[in-house]
Amino acid sequence: MHHIVLWKWHQQGFRIVYEPSAVNMMAVMLKRHMNGMPYRVVCITDNPRGIDPMVETHPLWNDCDYLVNASGSTFPSCYRRLRIFDKKAQDELGIPPGDRIVSIDLDTVIAGPLEPVLTRKEVFVGWAVKGTHHITVFNGSQFMFTAGELSHIWNDFNPMTSPVEALNHGFLGSDQAWLSYKLIGFPGVGGWSFPQVASYPREMLRKVQLPKSTVIVNFHGRNKPWMPATQNVAPWIKQHYRV
Q: Which of 7, 20, 30, 97 has the most C-beta neighbours closer than 10 Å?
């Protein structure tokens, strides 16, 4: 069973507001592309209003809600997502050990069947991209791991010291910095890469067509798939980001 975990909460002062429509669109794209694989969708949120009943909701926990991004206060802070590695949190969500947990950001377009992406066997698979200080880092837009495993990701995280520790080792961002610091290069850890998983700002900006083998496009950055201006310069978005 795959447990698809979505996240929606309001971060004060940030320009992008994620509406319930983004959650609902993700549920529609998943339904279109899971192709018979057993799954459920749960959104961890501070406001479930407007989210379609096909998506389960769970109250957003307060852990690490006060932490700012160690790379700079102008960047989003997603440290609270690290608690998904806590076995107690998995129990709260009804996720049994051995099942697969898949975290996907809402600013994502699913463009094809998900079997090639979700049938990977490594204990952890992250979106592997080139880093500023490292050849490879994990972008937090999507990752997958086996429930009941890797609990040290949460247990080792000290809110007072861990963000700076990861930064001092050249890993940028919030939760993605800690994930990269703790997992890059370790046995049983794998990565998705281009063209299977693509970055809109780095690889697909203003491209008229997607590569045939591209399954997922992540819209980290200012341009989002629901924005008319973004859709106008990349007409393939409307083909996939639809009900």
A: 30
CA 134 to chain centre: 20
Number of other residues whose CB lies within 10 A of the CB of residue 237 = 24
- Tell me the pLDDT tens digit for each residue of 38-74: 999 999 999 999 999 999 999 999 999 889 988 888 8
Distance, CA of 205 to CA of 230 (rounded, Å): 9
Tens-digit pLDDT profile for residues 24-42: 999 999 999 999 999 999 9
**Domain 2-193 belongs in CATH node 3.40.50.2000:** no
How far apart (Å, rounded) are the C-alpha atoms in residues 42 and 55?
6
pLDDT single digits (tens) 129-172: 998 999 999 999 999 999 999 999 999 999 999 999 999 999 99
Q: Per DSSP, what are the bridge partners of residue 132?
A: none
The first and second tokens of residue 73, run together, are 């206060």
Residue with tokens 């109250």: 59
Tokens (6 digits) for 18: 């994620």
The first and second tokens of residue 194, run together, are: 């281009």
Other residues' Cβ atoms within 10 Å of the Cβ of residue 143: 24
Domain ranges (residues) in the chain? 2-193
CA distance 162 to 177: 10
- E strand or H helix at 5, and its extent? strand 2-8
Question: How far apart (Å, rounded) are the C-alpha atoms in residues 124 and 145?
Answer: 4
CA distance 106 to 27: 10
